[in-house]
Write a structure and sequence with these properties.
The protein is an alpha+beta fold and about 450 residues long. The chain folds into 4 domains: about 5-120, no CATH class; about 130-240, no CATH class; about 250-335, Beta Barrel (OB fold (Dihydrolipoamide Acetyltransferase, E2P)); about 345-445, Beta Barrel (OB fold (Dihydrolipoamide Acetyltransferase, E2P)), CATH 2.40.50. Helices cover about 40% and strands about 25% of the residues. The protein contains 12 helices and 17 strands. Strands 6, 7, 8, 9, 10 and 11 form a 6-stranded antiparallel β-sheet that branches. A 6-stranded antiparallel β-sheet has the order 14-13-12-15-16-17. The chain is globular.
């Protein structure tokens, strides 16, 4: 089934407002010399200021764009204009055979894809597993020494009384975080800085602060007994510490093939690095997955996983019991997501969350698809109710609450919601076949 793009989806792909405006201006049939499609690709020739029209082509599976114009923006205005025509008036694009210049591009993409698969396999085969294991062992030993100092720091903090913590200021926590970085434990450094943020967040900070402190204590004990832990938990501990798994190392791991619903996506800024989190749910496997992407400055994220779509493909999970995964292959054109496959009862959702936390207590939140849930507001507080009336508190901004109420009209809707053990945080809603993001923009997320 051909992926049906809406005009709003296309405009969200624009690198900036000017590109979006220019793309809309080019979404007129009269500005194109030729237009064609074969279901997997759409192409066209757009007349510019020169004698030769620009050749524009789009692989609809991802989508991926290519244009012969000199623009460095991606996608350029010509690619946006072509996709806007497909979204608004698909009947205006003739179905036919690809011209040679489109076939050449697809052949080049296939060659690159084959090399991308073979390259990691060859590199993995050439690496020395013994040397890799030794390096990881040395990394854990160094982190363990740093965590020993952290244990003393936490004990002194508790013995001094938590009531005095807010007066210590950011430098107190930042200094300890820097020592964790020196111990090659950047993940722990982030947890220490989170403690500092919790201590300064105002009334009611004590509970979450102490819970975070307890999880950090649990981490120090886990590293003390690292060799006694099951393989999956060792991988989880390494991940929390900040020992990364190279993408090449995933080549030999088994994959999970499924129909993956791309249920939510959000982007945040972490220390000048943009982090994109894309949540997926496997219709057959009933597994959740988190795909992370990182970008500096204005660099663009890879766009294969478009939120609000369903794709047939294979994911490979990182070692451990967590949710992080990487996309390995896509085997069918993405379709529009019209409803969520998930859990319709709060008790079932809580069972899923409890099982995940039991396997990996350091999971900070889990994005779970929920079916037929009703958002309600009582006073200044928001709640999400299932069909039985069971409710959980919801962390909903008033602007998102207005969107939710407008979409639901008081009726049940499907939600993709993040849960941290205290409240649901809706990231997307699906109602009457339409998917709507509730994730804040990156500018708002960093305030």
């Amino acid at each position: 089934m051909l992926r049906a793009f809406s005009s709003d989806e296309v405009l969200r792909m624009a690198p900036d407002a000017n590109s979006a405006k220019s793309g809309q201006e080019l979404a007129q049939i009269r500005k194109w010399v030729s237009l064609g499609s074969d279901g997997e690709a759409v192409w066209g020739e757009c007349q510019g200021s020169g004698a030769k029209p620009y050749q524009v082509q789009i692989a609809l599976t991802e989508p991926a764009f290519k244009c012969s114009c000199p623009s460095r923006k991606f996608p350029c205005k010509h690619g946006l204009g072509l996709l806007l025509i497909l979204a608004a008036t698909p009947e205006a694009i003739a179905v036919g055979l690809r011209p040679d210049w489109v076939n050449d591009w697809f052949a080049m993409r296939a060659t690159k894809a084959a090399k991308a698969v073979e390259g990691p396999k060859k590199k993995a085969a050439a690496s020395d597993p013994t040397a890799q294991a030794k390096r990881r062992e040395q990394r854990i030993e160094r982190a363990n020494a740093g965590l020993g100092n952290l244990s003393t720091w936490m004990r002194d903090l508790v013995q001094g009384g938590l009531g005095a913590v807010p007066s210590k200021g950011f430098a107190f926590f930042d200094g300890q975080a820097r020592r964790m970085v020196d111990a090659q434990a950047p993940g722990v450094a982030r947890l220490v800085r989170k403690l500092g943020s919790l201590a300064s967040c105002g009334a009611g900070w004590q509970r979450e602060f102490f819970e975070q402190l307890a999880l950090m204590h649990l981490l120090t004990r886990a590293v003390d007994r690292f060799e006694e832990l099951p393989d999956a938990m060792r991988a989880d501990v390494e991940s929390v510490i900040g020992v990364t798994t190279a993408t090449d190392d995933l080549a030999e791991l088994p994959g999970v093939t499924d129909r993956w619903q791309v249920i939510a996506q959000e982007t945040e800024l972490e220390e000048r690095l943009r982090v994109q989190r894309t949540w997926l749910f496997g219709v057959e496997s009933r597994r959740m997955a988190l795909v992370l992407q990182f970008a500096h400055g204005s660099a663009r994220f890879e766009s294969t996983l478009s939120p609000g779509t369903v794709l047939q493909g294979e994911l490979v999970y990182y070692p451990g019991s967590g949710q992080r995964a990487a996309l390995r292959t896509v085997t069918a054109t993405a379709e529009t997501l019209s409803s969520l496959d998930g859990w319709a009862l709060m008790k079932d959702m809580l069972d899923v969350y409890s099982a995940a936390i039991a396997a990996n207590p350091w999971i900070e939140e889990l994005c779970i698809p929920l079916k037929k849930m009703t958002p309600v507001k009582q006073g200044s507080a928001w709640f999400v109710l299932d069909a039985t009336g069971a409710a959980l508190p919801a962390a909903i901004r008033d602007v998102d609450g207005c969107d939710l109420l407008a979409v639901s009209g008081g009726r049940p809707v499907d939600l993709a919601a993040s849960y941290d053990g205290r409240a649901l945080r809706p990231l997307a809603v699906v109602a009457e076949g339409d998917w709507l993001s509730l994730a804040p923009a990156i500018e708002e997320a960093t305030r």
